[in-house]
Amino acid sequence: MELSPDRLAYLSLMREIEDFFHAEADLLDERDYTKWLDLFTDDVRYWMPMRKNVAFDDLATRETTAENDIAWIDDDKATLEKRVRQLMTGIHWSEEPVSRVSHVVTNIRLVEPIHDLPEGATATVKCHFIVYRNRLESETDLLVGRREDTLRRVGHNLRITHRKILIEQSVLQAKNLTVFL
Amino acid sequence: MSTAIGSAKSLVDTAHGEISREIFVNKDLYQQELECIFGRAWLLVGHESQIPKSGDFFSSKMGEESVILTRDRAGKIHVFLNSCRHRGMKVCRYDEGNTTNFICPYHAWSYTTDGRLVGVQDYDNLYQPPFDKKEWGLVEVAQMENFHGSIWATWDKDAPSFADYLGEAAFGLAGALRAWDGTDGDTELLGSVQKWIVPNNWKFIAENFAGDNLHVVSHRSVEMVGIGPGDGGGRRDDYGEAKRAAYPNGHGIVYSLVPPRKTFVQYAASTVTSDYFQERWTKRLEKLGDRAGIFPLIGTIFPNMSFHGQQPRTLLVAHPRGCQETEMWRFYFVDKGAPAEVKEFLRRYYIRYSGPAGMTEQDDMENWNYASKASDGLIARRHPYNYKAGIGRGGKDDVIPGHVMDKGAPGTEQNPRALYKRWAEFMDAPSWAALKG
Predict the structure, then answer these.
(1) Do A52 and B362 touch (CB under 8 A)?
(2) Does B411 lie in the same domain as B263?
(3) From A53, A73, A92, residue closest to B363, measured CB to CB
(4) Strands B77-81 and B65-71
(5) pLDDT digit string (tens) for A110-130?
(6) Confidence of residue A2 (pLDDT cuts 50, 70, 90)
(7) Dist. CA B249–CA A15, nearest whole Å
């Protein structure tokens, strides 16, 4: 089958996006947080709403907490930077000694099958994550869910300008959320 | 009643500030707590703003048991055990919603929002003679109280009134729940409740919020980074002088005292928010005068409800799930009349402070987790914890009710001592009659 230029451009963009997320996961697991912060635009919203058990008829309106409701996390860039600085103090006891973390990012797809992302343009990308954390001896968490990221082309690079994280739990089964998702 | 390993009083020596680790790790004692503490005490169930309309419900917990907080067709608030009278199935498996009936999915018994059993399969045919449906409604709590919008209940009909249960601590809890200008009943929850599981005994949480100033050192990392709502430094704006108050009913509250000066600037990072609080402060001064500057900062209402009354503003219940497991529920609240922009600013501040992702709370949970775990060993259990800080200090205060310690000994452990003294009384008492004595 011959690939059209548009199809080739789409595949090339998809490959770039996949590389971007895989590189991001490595930065997190290698604890290179300063470089990780550079992947976000200054106007980023890093948002992790909560989930609820609701009746079928309420699913659309009440299953996920709304934008102005209490969330697990609702950070701007300044707060993300503060989280990183806290991790780097060496006395943030919930991550000292550090946890061992592996991010698996998969099911990556462009919501709209575009083939070009020019400077300043944005694209919405969905993916799933499986994040394993082990700390000290036997403390283990498995955080599984989905992400919806808005990526923006900034100076030839991809940058995250909106991140929505949906974890598949209503009562969080982990004692804290010190791991970035 | 004595415990599996002797009287509870023998495990809790508050005169010398020594408390056995058994009370945090012993599974038999935990089972006894479910009966003697959680079966008797007044417990926080929720807030009236969660169920504003008839038919609204919120699934809650009392101890380990599931309950339904609901508002019936007449507008009356009820708290029911969430278990069908026929075969025990949960009649409500939703966290919240609105309904006319709670219909059991197992055999379809159905109950109204005021708890009456109204639907039984093939009732006229199968039950001859008929049983009295009035006697088979949902199990309702023995007593319920709406305290400044917060809903409390107890399973024990012999428990004292909620006002008597609080005693002088009512001053602090009411202060925490009022609107910023001092008006009653003008606060509401800021949306949904955070729920998460921590691997430690519930009492670590209760004593932490009762007033453990010595643990502040564990929050040094967040203090260094600064998440405060003013210039971004620290965790909170300046809150004046703190005083710690312990109550014989087991409650502990830390108050902050701000001089009743003309201006009291908070939340400077947001002009709209800062202006709102300054305007409320002016109204508060008019309303409360010399007492305007008294803010309940944090506290624990025995046994497992805690609150932040100043910055942030939250309610917390540490629901026990086992000797070494607790489900934390954090409710956030605001002035009902605050502008949307103020609520939005507070929302973001509250959740970067508290909850499982809260930059302050995270470090608490690490400490509770491994303190609880490292006390479980046979050798560890032989050695009591040390609660000796500030023994013999404090006394009556002109302004704050209770046994009060001022800045002379801020690290006093008087509030945890009061909590555990009351804990032992509950565990050893055969009934409320003995506790009231």
Answers:
(1) no
(2) yes
(3) A92
(4) antiparallel
(5) 999 899 999 999 999 999 999
(6) confident
(7) 64
Residue B270 shares a structural domain with residue B405: yes
**CB nearest to B197's CB, from A53, A93, A173:** A173
Q: What is the CATH number of the domain that holds B87?
A: 2.102.10.10
Q: Residue B5 — very low, low, confident or very high, per pLDDT cuts 50/70/90? A: confident
Mean pLDDT for all residues in chain A: 97
Q: What integer pLDDT is reported at residue B437 of this predicted model?
A: 66
- CB contacts of A76 in chain B (<8 Å) are 348
Chain A hits for B332, CB-CB cut-off 8 Å, are: 70
Q: Which of B88, B117, B144 is the last residue of a domain?
A: B144
Is A175 at the interface with chain B, CB within 8 A?
Answer: yes
Q: Answer yes or no: is B244 within a domain.
A: yes
Residue B158: inside a domain, yes or no? no
CATH code where residue B285 lies: 3.90.380.10
* DSSP calls for chain A: -PPPHHHHHHHHHHHHHHHHHHHHHHHHHTT-HHHHHTTEEEEEEEEE--B----GGGHHHHSB--TTS--SEEE-HHHHHHHHHHHTTS--GGGSSPPEEEEEEEEEEESS--S---TT-EEEEEEEEEEEEEETTTEEEEEEEEEEEEEEEETTEEEEEEEEEEES-SSB-SS---S--
Percent of chain B surpassing pLDDT 70: 99
Structural domain range at position B13: 9-40+181-436
pLDDT tens-digit series, residues B119-173 = 999 999 999 999 999 999 999 999 999 999 999 999 999 999 999 999 999 999 9
Q: Are residues B114 and B192 part of one domain?
A: no
Mean pLDDT, to the nearest integer, of B23-39? 97
Are residues B115 and B197 both part of a single domain?
no
CA B354, CA B192: separation in Å to the nearest integer? 14
State the average pLDDT for chain B: 96
Q: Which residue of A has its CA nearest to B233?
A: A82
Q: Which residues of A touch B355 (CB under 8 A)?
A: 72
How far is Cα A102 from Cα B220, in angstroms, rounded to an integer? 28
Taking the CA of residue A178 and the nearest CA in chain B, the distance in Å comes to 6
Query: In chain B, which residue's Cα lies nearest the Cα of A175?
Result: B198
Count: domains in chain B: 2
Residue B388 domain-assigned (yes or no):
yes
CB–CB of A171 and B344 under 8 A? no
Q: Which residue of A has its CA nearest to B351?
A: A73
CATH topology (fold) of A5-167 = Nuclear Transport Factor 2; Chain: A, (3.10.450)
Regarding whether B360 and B230 lie in a shared domain, the answer is: yes
Within a domain: B282: yes
Per-residue pLDDT of B257-290, as tens digits, reads: 999 888 999 999 999 999 999 999 999 999 999 9
Separation between Cα atoms, residue A20 and residue A23, nearest integer Å:
5
Q: Of B99, B192, B222, which is closest to A69 when you measure between CB atoms?
A: B192
pLDDT of residue B261: 87
Which residues from B are below 8 Å from A62, CB to CB?
Answer: 96-97
